[in-house]
Write a structure and sequence with these properties.
The structure is a single chain. This protein has 419 residues and is an alpha+beta fold. The protein has 4 domains: 121 residues, Arc Repressor Mutant, subunit A (Orthogonal Bundle), CATH 1.10.10; 90 residues, Orthogonal Bundle (Arc Repressor Mutant, subunit A), CATH 1.10.10; 63 residues; 93 residues, no CATH class. The chain contains 15 helices and 10 strands. The strands form 4 sheets. A 3-stranded antiparallel beta sheet has the order 2-6-5. A 3-stranded antiparallel beta sheet has the order 8-10-9. The longest helix has 50 residues. The chain is elongated, with a radius of gyration of 37 Å.
Length: 419
Amino acid sequence: MKQENRVVTKSNSLNEARYRLTVQEQRIILSVISLIQPNDEDFKVYRIKVSDFLAFLEIQNQQVYPEIKRITKSLMEKILIIKKEESELHISWFSSAEYFDKKGYVELRFDPKLKPYLLKLKECFTSYHLENVIHLRSIYSIRIYELLKQYEFVAKRTFDVFELREILGIRPDEYKLYGDFKRHVILPAQKELKQKTDIKFNLKEIKTGRKVTSMEFIVEKNNGLKSHSKQPLPKPKFDKDEDNDFQTLVELLPPEHQSKKTILEMIATAYKNYGFEYVSSNIRYANQNSKNNYRAYLNKAIKENWGTAIIEEEVARKEAKAQEKDQTSMIEQQKKEDEDLKRRNEKLGKQALAYIESLSPEEKEGLRQEAINRYQARGKGKNPPKEAILETLIRNIVMEKLGKGEIPLSAKKLSFKGT
């Protein structure tokens, strides 16, 4: 396949991975990715001719084999970091590289753990023609192109400056001043993208106080550049019978819009770029708020991500429901504990009365004296308490001793000492 007809398709997670490669290393990676076919079930051994290396690496013929070996060896040693929901994957690009010097080609194989990010992609992926990036000369231009191409449909993308530096693999000691970062990274990329690719961008700086902390990229189609490619980019599928998630999205649409091709194409494109939850929330937002011209309203909602409000409301409802459930559970648990305590005290009370009845007059008098001593020790006065209060105190003392195990349940007698 001619270079200008080759297509690169990557998952957005891979697009946003943290790594730093030279221009030549990026060209090799993207050239191999462009050999993957949409229906491939597994990675193959991808063969690249030396003549192709000469073309996109821009090296002299006599240097080609040592240079190819040097670059691919470096690639196998470099790590990219992919952030997942519950983990962080550190991985190298290739698991093997085999050189056939006499036959004039190299065989490369991707690491198997990259399969979810390069094979059978249905949602959250970005596609573009290889010709757009293969001749970019800044190490940052290719990455910035991919990050903005991912959001071409929305037409803008905002990055925290620190986050963008991380994605681009810029070290903390490089371009410490924002002005240097902009001059050496952003502006060269802006110039190159306008001159050589199918998109261009304008930049809006967002400040916190006097410091630029975020950057908003306004993405546009670059109509001034004519593509030589005859290979169409993979179109988002909108066959609702083949994709359950997409079918669910279609069913969320009002019935009168479920068969309109322009709307199906719109949600298919958004589904490809941003995934199910993103599109679902925006459809539901449009359903609730659109007054007229549903297609235009839905399009705007998807681009501006108005559905965030729906998600926030749902999260708030879930949290309130969970809190209510926790509170109900706590009340029920407390009620159960209170009932258990009541039953335990009733049982101890009966055991205490039975135990008191089994005592001799002398032992009862000793218990009575202990109760009086405790009563007076609490500052209740020098006189003994009334008989009804004294009986309660005696029973409580015995219940306390039973609860602490100081009186075995089988015991008939116990020597009491004043407290």
